[in-house]
Amino acid sequence: MPKNQQILLDNRPEGAASASNFKLVTSDTPDLQDDQVLVRHHFLSLDPYMRGRMNAAKGYADPQPLGQVMIGGTAGEVIESRSPKFPVGAKVVGMGGWQQYSVVEAGQTGALRKVDTTDVPLSHYLGAVGMPGVTAWYGLVKIIEPNVGQTVVVSAATGAVGSAFCALAKARGLSVVGIAGGPEKCKYAVDELGFDACIDYKEHSHPRSLTKAVKDACPKGVDGYFENVGGMVMDAVMANMNAFGRIAVCGMIAGYDGAPMPMSYPALILMNRMKVEGFIVSEHMEVWPEALKELGMLVASGKLKPRESIAQGLEAAPEAFLGLLKGKNFGKQLVKLV
Amino acid sequence: MPKNQQILLDNRPEGAASASNFKLVTSDTPDLQDDQVLVRHHFLSLDPYMRGRMNAAKGYADPQPLGQVMIGGTAGEVIESRSPKFPVGAKVVGMGGWQQYSVVEAGQTGALRKVDTTDVPLSHYLGAVGMPGVTAWYGLVKIIEPNVGQTVVVSAATGAVGSAFCALAKARGLSVVGIAGGPEKCKYAVDELGFDACIDYKEHSHPRSLTKAVKDACPKGVDGYFENVGGMVMDAVMANMNAFGRIAVCGMIAGYDGAPMPMSYPALILMNRMKVEGFIVSEHMEVWPEALKELGMLVASGKLKPRESIAQGLEAAPEAFLGLLKGKNFGKQLVKLV
Predict the structure, then answer these.
(1) Are B270 and A283 an interchain contact pair (Cβ–Cβ within 8 Å)?
(2) N or C: which end of chain A has fewer CB within 10 A?
């Protein structure tokens, strides 16, 4: 059996996360039992939710245990199999974690998903045609529930979720405005992803200035907002919401390090009869088939061209992850392991 | 035609509202035209939403115009009629405003509603079997959507909305916890209104202490919250919400005077996958018949015994209203005009 490089959570962050929270180790992969398969990971997905799991406090999920392999989505290939469902050579997506190989109980529902790489590259099953894509789909379709011609806004616009959100929104005849950090990302959002406009939040140090920028970009007001960041960006979009506006709360990356991040004007929820709803896509498995089908077609037809930031080698994962939390990535952040 | 005492909004508050914002005048009531009726008001309803209308900024409704009769719900009797729909002697509820008489276009949809005072006293049509009661009904039934055995919380518990909320919640097999100001109100909430527990927020100057009080009163956590006040009370309840908790946002009285009133931990919306939804009951006229029917039966059967604070005479309205904003009323605040 091959040697397996793994990254463990060694200790919990106090304030911002750092590379010293992680530890790289090498272990043996165990022999397979009946119904198990050995997957060689080609790609590891890095996602903001992992930061929440690093804290000791229970968030919406249990904390990542110390001394164990960091949780994470993986795409790879079955290289040994004692399960007829997943023969050697099958391309699969699962939650293998921050390591090169994983042994998976093939019979466990949802543990592994076989994917077809004819029209969709394997890595995209961790992004546009995977959890981030379905996240965008759920927030847009099930919470924002937009009508043709309405205006929707998404923060972290060029990320995996944001870019999928844009393609899904354009397919529904919506105006889509992004919020991202830096001129390069904003240009990319408009030129490549198809956003109608993109606001560079880094140009606005004062809430009033950012609020005006949202207003200028959304002359008819905002009907739906997909929240990835929280804080000042959330306040600025809320100030521009139309009556009966909907906010899908998917992430509040601005608050992960424990800094207080209030919502400045909750009275707007009443004044504009808004709905603000938090969700976790893994609790809505019933929508995945429909969402993945649409996302797969958008990618195969070229209407969704997801960008990827690819770090090389497992040992690069911690720095890539810390960069993601600071918005240094550009598109879906992956680690290539093969 | 009788002389008509009226109270106008004379100028807008800067900060807290005061008696000097209002002006008492006397005018003639005009002769009736075809299809008009003259209503003598027996009761004027005083409600927190009026404070929002006194501000110049557009909230969810247009501001109350200066120099005009203050908006307000009224219950009274038709004393002259040129409409076959509303004969002299009919008991009616409408939006007559802060005055003794009003001339109403009887044909205008929703302008007047005939009520039956056999089993329900006229004044209750401004409270438990009127707008406040339907407000409680909508928030509980349409937004909180509780399941039997769940725990719901309401702030301003002994007010017109809170007491109706309690009766509606008990009828659905829920645990109901109130939040009110002062030991007298809390005792009344438990002894007379049927709350399972009531928290005196005035005993808690620190958010942590109030949060613990909510926790102690709701050992199984909070599944639904009916928000009437905002501020620290909202934060304390949010900190105790269960996964998939719902908050119906009906009022944020704590913020009407322009003081900033942030929501301290909006990240809880994500962590607990909460839904926070604002509403105005006048935008949901389709539910009124069903809601009024249930509320009327609860009052007629004695299961909902609404308490009233009754000020005497129109000139007492401003002080009674200012008292309401400070929580000095006890139960539904009315002004008796006859």
Answers:
(1) no
(2) C
